[in-house]
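Bumping with the actual sequence this time:
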Amino acid sequence: MKQSEKLIAGNWKMNGLGADLEGVVQDLKRELQAEPASCRVAICPPATLLSRLADAVSGQAVEVGGQDCRAETHGAFTGGVSAAMLKDAGATLVIVGHSERRQEFGETDRLVSAKAEAAVQAGLAPIVCVGETLEQRQAGRAVEVVRGQVMNSLPLAVAGRDFAVAYEPVWAIGTGLTPTLEQIEEVHRAVRAAMLERLGLASAAAPILYGGSVKPDNARDILAVPEVGGALVGGASLKASDFLGIIRAV
């Protein structure tokens, strides 16, 4: 990824049926055909929609991503989806280590690193998520926690490859709360420093996305913060007009 090229990625989480491809995606395609985006655009739908979304945006400047993958390439993992399977379904990137996976499923930095490495090996660009809880923020440990996650969640295999880190303060996701611009800048600068320490200059071009209640009305200010290389968008990506408003804020 070129550092100057921001990435706006929509994470649909456990939302979306086939009918939504007729609405959200078609509306988005129409608007982007009329006025192309000045950034990379991606949508990460539920696994059930991956191949259909890939077909729907074929030939368009919209990338398709998975929301998670197994670290293993294959095996007796009922319900599991490997990185190669996502690639086969039309994905070009995948989210790993999202706070919901860390909080609800107990995923560790070590597991997130293994998933990111599996993604790279399968030819996908991992979006590695990091972020502190409200308790950690209030204790003044936000930078310390996020730095540790970066150092331990990024495998050496991503060096020089197409990948991104997404900073998503856990307490801001889906709550309508957002850190101050100064807090966002502080953490993003710390993330970049940790990336450089971990991977060297091979990580200098990888974008650092901000995620956590990004909306059309706050996107422009957030995206203008130093070291913010895009956004990982949750609920606002489910409505074409809102998602487009964030894309146009770049």
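The tokens above came from a reply further down the thread. The mean pLDDT is 95.
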